[in-house]
Amino acid sequence: MSVFKENFLWGGAVAANQCEGAWNEAGKGISASDVCTGGSHKRSKRITRTIEPDTFYPSHEAIDFYHHYKEDIALFAEMGFKVFRFSIAWTRIFPTGMENEPNEAGLEFYDRVIDECLSHNIEPLITISHYEMPFALTEKYNGWSSRECIDLYVRYAKTLFTRYKGKVKYWLTFNEINSGTMPMGNFLSLGILNEGTTEFNNQVDIPQLRFQGLHHQFVASALAVKAGHEIDPDCKIGCMIVQITTYPLTCNPDDILEAQHQNQILNQFCGDVQVRGEYPYFMKRYFKEHNIEVAMEPGDADILKEGCVDYYTFSYYMSNCATTSKNEAQTSGNIMGGAKNPYLEASDWGWQIDPKGLRYTLNELYGRYRIPLMVVENGLGAYDKIEEDGTIQDDYRIDYLRKHIEQMREAVEDGVDLMGYTPWGCIDLVSASTGEMAKRYGFIYVEKYDDGSGDLSRRKKKSFDWYKKVIETNGEVLA
Fold first, then answer.
1. Marked catalytic residue, from 20, 116, 123, 377
2. Which of 20, 123, 176, 258 is catalytic?
3. CATH number assigned to the domain covering 9-472
4. Domain limits of the chain?
5. Region 41-66: what's the mean pLDDT?
Protein backbone atom coordinates (compact mmCIF):
# COMPACT_ATOMS: atom_id res chain seq x y z
CA MET A 1 0.00 0.00 0.00
CA SER A 2 1.30 3.42 -0.94
CA VAL A 3 1.40 6.07 1.76
CA PHE A 4 -0.01 8.51 -0.81
CA LYS A 5 -3.78 8.75 -1.23
CA GLU A 6 -5.39 6.52 -3.84
CA ASN A 7 -6.51 9.63 -5.73
CA PHE A 8 -3.18 11.46 -5.31
CA LEU A 9 -2.73 13.97 -8.12
CA TRP A 10 0.54 13.16 -9.90
CA GLY A 11 1.33 15.39 -12.85
CA GLY A 12 3.40 18.31 -14.07
CA ALA A 13 3.31 22.08 -14.40
CA VAL A 14 3.93 24.79 -17.01
CA ALA A 15 2.96 28.45 -17.56
CA ALA A 16 1.42 30.07 -20.63
CA ASN A 17 4.06 32.77 -21.04
CA GLN A 18 6.87 30.20 -20.89
CA CYS A 19 5.47 27.55 -23.22
CA GLU A 20 2.63 28.72 -25.47
CA GLY A 21 4.25 31.09 -27.96
CA ALA A 22 1.81 32.39 -30.61
CA TRP A 23 2.19 35.71 -28.85
CA ASN A 24 0.09 37.71 -31.32
CA GLU A 25 -2.20 35.07 -32.84
CA ALA A 26 -5.99 34.92 -32.71
CA GLY A 27 -6.41 38.33 -31.10
CA LYS A 28 -3.94 37.89 -28.24
CA GLY A 29 -2.64 41.14 -26.75
CA ILE A 30 0.83 42.00 -25.49
CA SER A 31 1.61 40.68 -22.01
CA ALA A 32 4.31 41.81 -19.59
CA SER A 33 6.35 38.76 -20.59
CA ASP A 34 6.13 39.69 -24.27
CA VAL A 35 8.31 42.78 -23.72
CA CYS A 36 11.10 40.85 -21.98
CA THR A 37 14.12 39.99 -24.12
CA GLY A 38 16.30 36.92 -23.81
CA GLY A 39 18.96 36.79 -21.13
CA SER A 40 21.35 34.23 -19.76
CA HIS A 41 22.73 32.69 -16.60
CA LYS A 42 25.22 35.56 -16.34
CA ARG A 43 23.38 38.42 -18.05
CA SER A 44 20.02 39.89 -17.11
CA LYS A 45 17.28 40.11 -19.70
CA ARG A 46 15.88 43.55 -20.55
CA ILE A 47 12.40 45.02 -20.36
CA THR A 48 11.46 47.09 -23.40
CA ARG A 49 8.44 49.37 -23.43
CA THR A 50 7.78 48.54 -27.09
CA ILE A 51 8.47 45.51 -29.26
CA GLU A 52 11.85 46.26 -30.82
CA PRO A 53 12.66 44.96 -34.31
CA ASP A 54 15.50 42.43 -34.65
CA THR A 55 15.30 41.65 -30.92
CA PHE A 56 14.76 38.16 -29.52
CA TYR A 57 11.77 37.81 -27.19
CA PRO A 58 11.66 34.22 -25.88
CA SER A 59 7.93 34.23 -25.08
CA HIS A 60 6.97 35.04 -28.67
CA GLU A 61 7.51 31.46 -29.78
CA ALA A 62 8.60 29.71 -26.57
CA ILE A 63 8.12 25.98 -27.27
CA ASP A 64 4.96 26.63 -29.33
CA PHE A 65 2.64 24.66 -27.05
CA TYR A 66 -0.13 26.65 -28.76
CA HIS A 67 0.28 24.49 -31.86
CA HIS A 68 1.72 21.36 -30.18
CA TYR A 69 -0.70 20.97 -27.26
CA LYS A 70 -2.25 17.72 -28.52
CA GLU A 71 1.15 16.10 -28.96
CA ASP A 72 2.35 17.34 -25.58
CA ILE A 73 -0.76 16.30 -23.66
CA ALA A 74 -0.58 12.86 -25.29
CA LEU A 75 2.97 12.55 -23.90
CA PHE A 76 1.74 13.60 -20.46
CA ALA A 77 -0.98 10.97 -20.69
CA GLU A 78 1.62 8.36 -21.64
CA MET A 79 3.43 9.18 -18.40
CA GLY A 80 0.13 8.66 -16.60
CA PHE A 81 -0.55 12.23 -15.47
CA LYS A 82 -3.60 12.59 -13.23
CA VAL A 83 -3.38 16.39 -13.32
CA PHE A 84 -1.80 19.02 -15.56
CA ARG A 85 -1.13 22.44 -14.09
CA PHE A 86 -1.07 25.22 -16.67
CA SER A 87 -2.03 28.87 -16.78
CA ILE A 88 -4.32 30.88 -18.97
CA ALA A 89 -2.83 33.90 -20.72
CA TRP A 90 -4.88 36.88 -19.57
CA THR A 91 -4.18 38.64 -22.88
CA ARG A 92 -5.72 35.79 -24.90
CA ILE A 93 -9.01 36.47 -23.13
CA PHE A 94 -8.84 40.26 -22.63
CA PRO A 95 -6.04 41.56 -24.89
CA THR A 96 -5.52 44.81 -22.96
CA GLY A 97 -7.33 43.71 -19.81
CA MET A 98 -9.82 46.54 -20.30
CA GLU A 99 -12.22 45.17 -22.96
CA ASN A 100 -15.89 44.81 -22.09
CA GLU A 101 -16.19 41.46 -23.84
CA PRO A 102 -13.72 38.56 -23.92
CA ASN A 103 -11.89 37.38 -27.02
CA GLU A 104 -13.82 34.30 -28.14
CA ALA A 105 -10.84 32.87 -30.05
CA GLY A 106 -8.83 32.82 -26.83
CA LEU A 107 -11.58 31.09 -24.89
CA GLU A 108 -11.92 28.52 -27.67
CA PHE A 109 -8.21 27.70 -27.52
CA TYR A 110 -8.49 26.80 -23.84
CA ASP A 111 -11.71 24.88 -24.57
CA ARG A 112 -9.56 22.69 -26.79
CA VAL A 113 -6.73 22.34 -24.27
CA ILE A 114 -9.09 21.48 -21.42
CA ASP A 115 -11.06 19.01 -23.53
CA GLU A 116 -7.82 17.37 -24.66
CA CYS A 117 -6.79 16.92 -21.02
CA LEU A 118 -10.16 15.48 -20.05
CA SER A 119 -10.11 13.08 -23.01
CA HIS A 120 -6.99 11.56 -21.42
CA ASN A 121 -8.52 11.58 -17.91
CA ILE A 122 -6.19 14.38 -16.84
CA GLU A 123 -7.60 16.98 -14.44
CA PRO A 124 -6.76 20.57 -15.44
CA LEU A 125 -5.29 22.66 -12.60
CA ILE A 126 -5.40 26.21 -13.88
CA THR A 127 -3.50 29.27 -12.66
CA ILE A 128 -5.52 32.36 -13.53
CA SER A 129 -2.56 34.77 -13.53
CA HIS A 130 1.02 33.54 -13.87
CA TYR A 131 3.52 36.38 -14.42
CA GLU A 132 1.97 37.78 -17.61
CA MET A 133 -0.58 40.50 -16.89
CA PRO A 134 -1.60 42.67 -19.88
CA PHE A 135 1.17 45.15 -20.62
CA ALA A 136 -1.52 47.75 -21.36
CA LEU A 137 -2.32 47.73 -17.63
CA THR A 138 1.33 48.47 -16.86
CA GLU A 139 1.25 51.38 -19.29
CA LYS A 140 -2.03 52.85 -18.05
CA TYR A 141 -2.02 52.04 -14.33
CA ASN A 142 1.55 50.92 -13.52
CA GLY A 143 0.13 47.48 -12.94
CA TRP A 144 -1.24 46.36 -9.61
CA SER A 145 -0.11 49.55 -7.87
CA SER A 146 -3.51 50.86 -9.01
CA ARG A 147 -6.77 49.61 -7.53
CA GLU A 148 -8.40 49.65 -10.97
CA CYS A 149 -6.80 46.29 -11.68
CA ILE A 150 -8.99 44.57 -9.08
CA ASP A 151 -12.24 44.79 -11.03
CA LEU A 152 -10.50 43.98 -14.30
CA TYR A 153 -8.99 40.81 -12.82
CA VAL A 154 -12.26 39.74 -11.20
CA ARG A 155 -14.12 40.14 -14.49
CA TYR A 156 -11.46 37.99 -16.16
CA ALA A 157 -11.68 35.34 -13.41
CA LYS A 158 -15.49 35.24 -13.56
CA THR A 159 -15.28 34.77 -17.33
CA LEU A 160 -13.10 31.69 -16.81
CA PHE A 161 -15.20 30.23 -14.00
CA THR A 162 -18.34 30.60 -16.09
CA ARG A 163 -16.87 29.28 -19.32
CA TYR A 164 -15.20 26.19 -17.82
CA LYS A 165 -17.75 25.36 -15.11
CA GLY A 166 -18.04 21.61 -14.68
CA LYS A 167 -14.79 20.96 -16.53
CA VAL A 168 -12.19 22.52 -14.25
CA LYS A 169 -12.25 21.53 -10.58
CA TYR A 170 -8.99 23.10 -9.44
CA TRP A 171 -7.96 26.75 -9.73
CA LEU A 172 -5.16 28.97 -8.40
CA THR A 173 -5.65 32.74 -8.30
CA PHE A 174 -2.08 34.08 -8.59
CA ASN A 175 1.24 32.34 -9.13
CA GLU A 176 3.79 32.87 -6.35
CA ILE A 177 1.87 35.86 -5.04
CA ASN A 178 4.42 36.46 -2.29
CA SER A 179 7.06 37.38 -4.87
CA GLY A 180 5.42 40.79 -4.47
CA THR A 181 7.14 41.07 -1.08
CA MET A 182 10.50 41.26 -2.92
CA PRO A 183 11.89 43.81 -5.42
CA MET A 184 12.04 41.09 -8.09
CA GLY A 185 8.26 40.90 -7.91
CA ASN A 186 7.76 44.45 -9.20
CA PHE A 187 7.37 43.63 -12.88
CA LEU A 188 7.35 39.84 -12.66
CA SER A 189 4.27 39.52 -10.46
CA LEU A 190 2.79 42.99 -10.10
CA GLY A 191 3.33 44.50 -13.54
CA ILE A 192 4.92 47.55 -11.90
CA LEU A 193 7.53 49.24 -14.10
CA ASN A 194 9.02 52.15 -12.20
CA GLU A 195 10.94 54.92 -13.94
CA GLY A 196 14.53 53.88 -14.58
CA THR A 197 13.88 50.14 -14.77
CA THR A 198 15.41 48.48 -17.80
CA GLU A 199 16.95 45.29 -16.44
CA PHE A 200 14.59 42.53 -15.36
CA ASN A 201 16.79 41.32 -12.51
CA ASN A 202 17.77 44.80 -11.31
CA GLN A 203 14.54 46.68 -10.88
CA VAL A 204 13.93 50.13 -9.46
CA ASP A 205 11.99 49.47 -6.29
CA ILE A 206 9.42 51.58 -4.43
CA PRO A 207 8.23 49.38 -1.53
CA GLN A 208 5.15 51.54 -0.96
CA LEU A 209 3.89 50.80 -4.47
CA ARG A 210 4.84 47.13 -4.24
CA PHE A 211 2.97 46.42 -1.01
CA GLN A 212 0.00 48.49 -2.14
CA GLY A 213 -0.08 46.41 -5.30
CA LEU A 214 0.11 43.23 -3.25
CA HIS A 215 -2.88 44.35 -1.19
CA HIS A 216 -4.84 44.88 -4.40
CA GLN A 217 -3.96 41.34 -5.44
CA PHE A 218 -5.15 40.02 -2.06
CA VAL A 219 -8.50 41.72 -2.53
CA ALA A 220 -8.78 40.55 -6.14
CA SER A 221 -7.94 36.98 -5.13
CA ALA A 222 -10.51 36.97 -2.33
CA LEU A 223 -13.22 38.37 -4.62
CA ALA A 224 -12.34 35.75 -7.23
CA VAL A 225 -12.55 32.93 -4.66
CA LYS A 226 -15.98 34.12 -3.55
CA ALA A 227 -17.19 34.47 -7.14
CA GLY A 228 -15.80 31.10 -8.15
CA HIS A 229 -17.62 29.35 -5.33
CA GLU A 230 -20.86 31.09 -6.30
CA ILE A 231 -20.51 30.23 -10.01
CA ASP A 232 -19.36 26.64 -9.46
CA PRO A 233 -19.84 25.37 -5.88
CA ASP A 234 -17.95 22.17 -6.76
CA CYS A 235 -14.68 23.87 -7.70
CA LYS A 236 -11.72 24.28 -5.36
CA ILE A 237 -9.63 27.45 -5.43
CA GLY A 238 -6.17 27.69 -3.92
CA CYS A 239 -3.32 30.10 -3.33
CA MET A 240 0.21 29.61 -4.69
CA ILE A 241 3.27 30.68 -2.69
CA VAL A 242 6.94 30.67 -3.67
CA GLN A 243 8.31 28.83 -0.66
CA ILE A 244 11.59 30.34 0.50
CA THR A 245 12.36 28.05 3.41
CA THR A 246 15.00 29.82 5.48
CA TYR A 247 17.21 28.40 8.22
CA PRO A 248 19.49 30.31 10.60
CA LEU A 249 23.04 29.91 9.33
CA THR A 250 24.31 29.40 12.89
CA CYS A 251 22.87 28.93 16.36
CA ASN A 252 23.68 32.57 17.12
CA PRO A 253 20.35 34.00 18.41
CA ASP A 254 20.76 36.91 15.99
CA ASP A 255 20.74 34.47 13.07
CA ILE A 256 17.74 32.62 14.51
CA LEU A 257 15.76 35.84 14.81
CA GLU A 258 16.79 36.90 11.30
CA ALA A 259 15.61 33.57 9.86
CA GLN A 260 12.33 33.84 11.74
CA HIS A 261 11.82 37.37 10.43
CA GLN A 262 12.52 36.34 6.83
CA ASN A 263 10.13 33.39 7.05
CA GLN A 264 7.42 35.66 8.41
CA ILE A 265 7.71 38.31 5.71
CA LEU A 266 8.55 36.11 2.73
CA ASN A 267 6.38 33.06 3.42
CA GLN A 268 3.83 33.46 6.21
CA PHE A 269 2.54 36.96 5.40
CA CYS A 270 0.79 36.05 2.16
CA GLY A 271 -0.24 32.62 3.37
CA ASP A 272 -1.89 34.13 6.45
CA VAL A 273 -3.85 36.65 4.38
CA GLN A 274 -5.08 34.08 1.87
CA VAL A 275 -5.74 31.19 4.27
CA ARG A 276 -6.74 33.02 7.46
CA GLY A 277 -8.23 36.08 5.78
CA GLU A 278 -6.34 38.77 7.66
CA TYR A 279 -3.00 40.54 7.86
CA PRO A 280 -0.72 38.90 10.48
CA TYR A 281 0.32 40.86 13.54
CA PHE A 282 4.00 41.09 12.57
CA MET A 283 3.34 43.16 9.45
CA LYS A 284 2.41 46.24 11.51
CA ARG A 285 5.97 46.68 12.72
CA TYR A 286 7.42 45.84 9.31
CA PHE A 287 5.29 48.50 7.62
CA LYS A 288 6.12 51.06 10.30
CA GLU A 289 9.86 50.48 10.04
CA HIS A 290 9.80 50.67 6.23
CA ASN A 291 7.51 53.73 6.03
CA ILE A 292 4.80 51.77 4.21
CA GLU A 293 1.15 52.74 4.58
CA VAL A 294 -1.15 50.31 2.79
CA ALA A 295 -4.38 52.08 1.84
CA MET A 296 -7.38 49.86 2.51
CA GLU A 297 -10.89 50.70 1.41
CA PRO A 298 -13.87 50.18 3.73
CA GLY A 299 -14.95 46.57 3.33
CA ASP A 300 -11.53 45.20 2.34
CA ALA A 301 -11.14 43.37 5.66
CA ASP A 302 -14.50 41.66 5.17
CA ILE A 303 -13.59 40.72 1.59
CA LEU A 304 -10.37 39.04 2.76
CA LYS A 305 -12.28 37.07 5.43
CA GLU A 306 -14.93 35.94 2.96
CA GLY A 307 -12.45 34.90 0.26
CA CYS A 308 -10.19 32.40 2.00
CA VAL A 309 -8.73 29.67 -0.20
CA ASP A 310 -9.66 25.97 -0.08
CA TYR A 311 -6.16 24.57 -0.33
CA TYR A 312 -2.55 25.77 -0.21
CA THR A 313 -0.05 25.19 -3.01
CA PHE A 314 3.57 26.21 -3.26
CA SER A 315 6.77 25.96 -5.24
CA TYR A 316 9.77 24.37 -3.58
CA TYR A 317 13.17 24.15 -5.26
CA MET A 318 15.70 24.96 -2.55
CA SER A 319 16.24 26.42 0.90
CA ASN A 320 18.25 29.43 2.05
CA CYS A 321 20.15 30.43 5.16
CA ALA A 322 19.87 33.74 6.98
CA THR A 323 22.56 35.51 8.96
CA THR A 324 23.34 38.95 10.28
CA SER A 325 26.97 38.52 9.24
CA LYS A 326 27.98 40.48 6.15
CA ASN A 327 30.92 38.26 5.24
CA GLU A 328 29.26 34.94 4.44
CA ALA A 329 29.29 33.36 0.98
CA GLN A 330 26.02 33.83 -0.91
CA THR A 331 24.02 31.55 -3.17
CA SER A 332 21.23 32.16 -5.68
CA GLY A 333 17.73 30.76 -5.69
CA ASN A 334 14.14 31.01 -6.92
CA ILE A 335 13.29 34.74 -6.75
CA MET A 336 15.97 35.33 -4.11
CA GLY A 337 19.03 33.68 -2.61
CA GLY A 338 20.69 33.71 0.78
CA ALA A 339 23.74 32.65 2.72
CA LYS A 340 25.38 29.47 1.48
CA ASN A 341 24.54 26.34 3.46
CA PRO A 342 27.77 24.32 3.93
CA TYR A 343 25.81 21.06 4.21
CA LEU A 344 24.11 21.24 0.82
CA GLU A 345 25.10 20.80 -2.82
CA ALA A 346 23.82 23.17 -5.49
CA SER A 347 22.44 23.01 -9.03
CA ASP A 348 24.18 24.39 -12.14
CA TRP A 349 22.39 27.67 -11.38
CA GLY A 350 23.57 27.79 -7.76
CA TRP A 351 20.25 26.76 -6.19
CA GLN A 352 20.88 24.69 -3.06
CA ILE A 353 19.43 21.17 -3.19
CA ASP A 354 17.61 20.31 0.02
CA PRO A 355 15.11 17.41 -0.17
CA LYS A 356 14.74 17.15 3.61
CA GLY A 357 13.79 20.81 3.62
CA LEU A 358 10.64 19.81 1.74
CA ARG A 359 9.55 17.49 4.55
CA TYR A 360 10.30 20.24 7.05
CA THR A 361 8.33 22.75 4.97
CA LEU A 362 5.31 20.49 4.55
CA ASN A 363 5.12 19.95 8.29
CA GLU A 364 5.52 23.66 9.02
CA LEU A 365 2.78 24.62 6.56
CA TYR A 366 0.32 21.95 7.60
CA GLY A 367 0.88 22.71 11.27
CA ARG A 368 0.15 26.38 10.60
CA TYR A 369 -2.83 26.13 8.25
CA ARG A 370 -4.38 22.64 8.53
CA ILE A 371 -5.79 22.65 5.01
CA PRO A 372 -4.77 20.34 2.12
CA LEU A 373 -1.36 21.09 0.59
CA MET A 374 0.00 20.55 -2.89
CA VAL A 375 3.55 20.87 -4.25
CA VAL A 376 2.88 22.49 -7.63
CA GLU A 377 6.47 23.32 -8.57
CA ASN A 378 9.64 21.37 -7.83
CA GLY A 379 12.46 20.30 -10.10
CA LEU A 380 16.03 20.61 -11.24
CA GLY A 381 17.07 23.14 -13.86
CA ALA A 382 20.12 21.67 -15.58
CA TYR A 383 22.12 21.52 -18.80
CA ASP A 384 20.90 18.46 -20.71
CA LYS A 385 23.01 16.75 -23.37
CA ILE A 386 21.77 14.73 -26.31
CA GLU A 387 23.99 11.66 -26.61
CA GLU A 388 25.19 10.26 -29.94
CA ASP A 389 22.43 7.66 -29.85
CA GLY A 390 19.81 10.39 -29.35
CA THR A 391 19.12 9.66 -25.70
CA ILE A 392 19.22 12.11 -22.81
CA GLN A 393 20.59 10.47 -19.68
CA ASP A 394 19.31 12.84 -17.02
CA ASP A 395 20.06 10.67 -13.97
CA TYR A 396 20.79 13.87 -11.99
CA ARG A 397 17.16 14.92 -12.46
CA ILE A 398 15.87 11.50 -11.43
CA ASP A 399 18.04 11.63 -8.32
CA TYR A 400 16.76 15.11 -7.41
CA LEU A 401 13.10 14.19 -7.86
CA ARG A 402 13.45 10.80 -6.16
CA LYS A 403 14.90 12.36 -3.02
CA HIS A 404 12.14 14.98 -2.87
CA ILE A 405 9.38 12.41 -3.36
CA GLU A 406 10.93 10.31 -0.59
CA GLN A 407 10.65 13.29 1.72
CA MET A 408 7.07 13.95 0.61
CA ARG A 409 6.35 10.36 1.58
CA GLU A 410 7.89 10.98 5.01
CA ALA A 411 5.73 14.08 5.44
CA VAL A 412 2.58 12.11 4.63
CA GLU A 413 3.65 9.52 7.20
CA ASP A 414 4.05 12.44 9.63
CA GLY A 415 0.35 13.21 9.06
CA VAL A 416 0.48 15.97 6.44
CA ASP A 417 -2.58 16.13 4.14
CA LEU A 418 -0.84 16.21 0.75
CA MET A 419 -3.11 16.14 -2.30
CA GLY A 420 -0.72 16.20 -5.25
CA TYR A 421 2.63 16.86 -6.90
CA THR A 422 3.29 18.62 -10.20
CA PRO A 423 7.02 18.98 -10.95
CA TRP A 424 7.91 22.19 -12.77
CA GLY A 425 8.55 22.29 -16.48
CA CYS A 426 7.37 18.74 -17.15
CA ILE A 427 8.32 19.66 -20.70
CA ASP A 428 11.29 22.00 -21.36
CA LEU A 429 10.27 25.65 -21.50
CA VAL A 430 11.63 29.18 -21.28
CA SER A 431 13.04 30.28 -17.92
CA ALA A 432 10.95 33.02 -16.29
CA SER A 433 13.88 34.76 -14.64
CA THR A 434 16.43 34.72 -17.48
CA GLY A 435 14.58 33.78 -20.67
CA GLU A 436 16.89 30.82 -21.25
CA MET A 437 16.10 27.47 -22.84
CA ALA A 438 19.43 26.04 -21.64
CA LYS A 439 18.01 25.76 -18.13
CA ARG A 440 15.94 22.63 -18.70
CA TYR A 441 13.55 20.99 -16.25
CA GLY A 442 11.46 18.64 -18.35
CA PHE A 443 10.87 14.94 -18.75
CA ILE A 444 10.53 15.89 -22.43
CA TYR A 445 13.30 17.61 -24.36
CA VAL A 446 12.32 20.36 -26.81
CA GLU A 447 14.66 21.13 -29.69
CA LYS A 448 14.86 24.88 -29.03
CA TYR A 449 17.90 26.93 -28.07
CA ASP A 450 18.82 30.28 -26.56
CA ASP A 451 19.40 31.94 -29.92
CA GLY A 452 15.88 31.04 -31.01
CA SER A 453 16.95 28.21 -33.32
CA GLY A 454 15.58 24.68 -33.25
CA ASP A 455 12.86 22.68 -34.96
CA LEU A 456 10.72 22.33 -31.78
CA SER A 457 10.72 18.54 -32.01
CA ARG A 458 10.06 16.62 -28.80
CA ARG A 459 11.96 13.65 -27.41
CA LYS A 460 11.71 11.70 -24.17
CA LYS A 461 14.46 11.89 -21.58
CA LYS A 462 15.42 8.98 -19.34
CA SER A 463 13.38 10.62 -16.57
CA PHE A 464 10.21 10.20 -18.69
CA ASP A 465 9.98 6.44 -18.14
CA TRP A 466 11.16 6.80 -14.55
CA TYR A 467 8.34 9.22 -13.69
CA LYS A 468 5.87 7.00 -15.53
CA LYS A 469 6.77 4.17 -13.13
CA VAL A 470 6.50 6.50 -10.14
CA ILE A 471 2.93 7.37 -11.13
CA GLU A 472 2.01 3.76 -11.96
CA THR A 473 3.02 2.69 -8.46
CA ASN A 474 1.59 5.77 -6.71
CA GLY A 475 5.04 6.79 -5.53
CA GLU A 476 6.15 3.42 -4.22
CA VAL A 477 8.75 2.52 -6.86
CA LEU A 478 11.36 5.28 -7.02
CA ALA A 479 14.40 3.27 -8.18
1. 377
2. 176
3. 3.20.20.80
4. 9-472
5. 95
